Every structure is written in structure tokens, then in C-alpha cells.
Amino acid sequence: KAGVTQTPRYLIKTRGQQVTLSCSPISGHRSVSWYQQTPGQGLQFLFEYFSETQRNKGNFPGRFSGRQFSNSRSEMNVSTLELGDSALYLCASSSEGDARSYEQYFGPGTRLTVT
Amino acid sequence: AQSVTQLDSQVPVFEEAPVELRCNYSSSVSVYLFWYVQYPNQGLQLLLKYLSGSTLVESINGFEAEFNKSQTSFHLRKPSVHISDTAEYFCAVSGPPGGSNYKLTFGKGTLLTVNP
After folding, report:
1. Are strands A10-13 and A110-114 parallel, antiparallel or unpaired?
2. SS3 A52
3. Is A60 on the interface with B (CB under 8 A)?
4. Exposure winner among A51, A79, B21, B96, fewest CB in 10 A?
């Protein structure tokens, strides 16, 4: 099976702009989670989607949003970008209904730089 | 609420030496524990997990971790490290799938550097 894919891999944006990142989960996986990784704050959970519904949400401002499509692909959007949004954004997928559903598989990430 | 503390931010060792990366957790609900590894410019790879049963879990590349409920610890060990083990290692805790705690809460990471 192909792994989790994320596009684009690298992105440079200007303060005040908005950005959309995309994630394609492993085939058959219906849960998609997003994480932000920065040197200062480490790895932080953004949100989780399952069957097109947001099931869990982390402590991020409303500028961070996401959605999931019927094919389980997910996008996250950040509006009104700030310098502090520069980070590696990681997407992870997991199956549902068996012991392996506890395992989250990560993509390579999208490196966002805000100037 | 869940939290994870990795006690060492950096661990330098020589090749073929043993290593232990320490991890302590706290949680008010049943926990599931994980170790992930991250190589430079890559995403996270699952190294091993504890869900239930035997408290000693092993990975295919020689790492092992022991779940200790009384000490709320999940330390990672390897008896003999290789240069290729140089990476950042993250300990994480999660609640069960489908619940409100189904999210990975990570420690700050431990950078393992293996020197020749």
C-alpha cells in the first residue's frame, strides 16, 4: 500500500495570506489527524477527522481549520498567516475497527515558511 | 488530560554502546503508549507501541520498551546502537480510537546521536 502523502512538500507564504495543505491517507484509512511541529512548541495536535466529521480538536485559534472529503482525503487551511505559523505540518492516518486502529501513520509533512 | 515528559533532550553515545531514552507520562484515563522516530527532513515512523498485555514490547530493529504502570514510565532501550540509529525519538500517549482523547500527545523529543 502507498503511504500517507502530503502536498505540497514546501511552501513559502507572506504574512496575512492564507494557505491550504492537502493530505491523502493510506488506502482504507478513514481517520486523518493533523499535527504542527515547531522547535519551540514541539509536536501539537491540531484536529482529527473521521467520515467527513471533525471528531477531535486541539487548542489552536479559529484561523486553523480543516475538512475531510468522502474519499477520506483531507485539507487544512490557515488564514491570515502569522510568522509563528512557520512549522512542519504533519498528517497522520489510521484505520478503524481493529487493533491497528491505535497506530497512526505519518506522512512526510509540509514545511510552511511565513515571511 | 494527558502529558508526556522526556527527561533528556539530547543523548550522545558511542557506537555499540547501550542506550536508554527515558519517558514518563500522566493520564487520567487508560493509555496507549508509543515511541516514534524521526530522521532529518522526514515524518514520524512508529517504532513500537504498548496497548495491553506483556509490559515488554520490542521492535524489529532491536529496540525495546517496558511499560511500568506504578512508575508511569515507558523507557526505550537498545543494548547496542549503530550510527544509523542517530535520529530524534518521541514518546507519545493516546486515548482509544473514537474517543475524545484519541490524539497523540508527544514529549519534547530526545535527540540520539551515535558517534563512531
Report:
1. parallel
2. coil
3. no
4. A51
In chain A, the residue whose alpha carbon lies closest to the alpha carbon of B50 is A102
Question: Does residue B76 contact residue B87 with C-beta atoms inside 8 Å?
Answer: no
A108 interfacial to chain B (CB closer than 8 Å): yes
Distances from the Cα of B48 to the Cαs of A34, A51, A62, B62, B70, in angstroms?
A: 21, 27, 34, 11, 21
pLDDT in tens, A26-71: 999 999 999 999 999 999 999 999 999 999 999 999 999 999 999 9
**Helix %, strand %, coil % of chain B (to 5):** 5, 55, 45
Over its length of 116 residues, how does chain B's per-residue pLDDT go in tens digits?
789 999 999 999 999 999 999 999 988 777 889 999 999 888 899 999 988 777 888 887 899 999 998 899 999 999 999 999 999 999 999 988 878 788 899 999 999 999 99
CB contacts < 8 A (A, B): 59
User: Is the minimum CB–CB distance between A56 and chain B shorter than 8 Å?
Assistant: yes
